[in-house]
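Dear colleague,

Thank you for sharing your sequence with our group. We've completed the structure prediction you requested, and as agreed, I am returning the results in plain text so they can be pasted directly into your records. Please verify that the sequence below matches your submission; if there's any discrepancy, let me know and we will rerun it promptly.
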Amino acid sequence: MSSTRNLRILFMGTPDFAVATLKALLENDYNVVGVITAPDRPAGRGQKLRASAVKAFALEHHLNILQPTNLKANAFIEELKALNANLQIIVAFRMLPKVVWQMPEYGTFNLHASLLPQYRGAAPIHWAIINGETKTGVTTFFIDEKIDTGAVIQSEATAIGSKTTVGELHDDLMEIGSKLVVETVKQIANNEVSTKIQPQSEDLKTAYKLNRDNCKIDWSQPIDLIYNKIRGLNPFPAAWCFLDNGDDETLSIKLFGVEQQKESHTYNAGQLISTKDELKVACKGGYINILEIQLPGKRKLDVKSLLNGFNFSESAKLL
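Please find the predicted structure tokens below.
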């Protein structure tokens, strides 16, 4: 039986998704010699500098924190060398230069929120739901020169429910992923890692970066596609569209909680039907019932609260 390696871990990550993994490493008594996270950024109305979720957690636990703006800068590379880490773990960070990921003796591995090689890219959790998948998972893999293409160490699958939102799936994968990272570190510590090269496939789905254009709802699409898109963007960054409420009033609105109601009708796609306590949108194959909505400059509201104080015209439609 081989002796356990004495690991000196450098952790890189920024959002809440990464915090769960860093917490799990500490709870399992691994030696985290440094934490690299994004620089503080202006946020909120006052545009005050705000630390990343990972930095806030690292400060609470008195960890050594680095916040480089340039990952290739000589001063940063020298700081890394001084930490003498022999394993680097990446969770929701940015692409690393080769000089950084090649540095540690036992390699640099990443946690990715999909079952690789499917959904390589920036937003795998969102796109799995948007595309109507019923299964996804997490993967640990050694980093190479391309994005999310390295040799797979471990993976774990989980089901996606028909009503699951991206917020719910994010939290599930965050916990599953933190445990998978700990298992991967155990394998590395015991020198028991076996990897698999990712299969080459023509039929790969990509997790494109989300932007305003690909978060907009197209009401001419079938009901399932619309429903999956809205729940795949709920609560962040949120699906949106325009509300044409007549009298030259066009508002950009966001939709959150929705239900689908499959039935035939004769309404045009996007037509709004409102009552005192219900708001639904006609589309191909039925209606999308809106449960939560946000008007520009307002907070998110449940539909009953909105209907108490907002009047929809008879010709109101979503564009």
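Summary note from our side: Helices lie at 16-27, 53-60, 74-83, 98-101, 124-130, 166-189, 223-231, 303-309.

Kind regards,
the structure core
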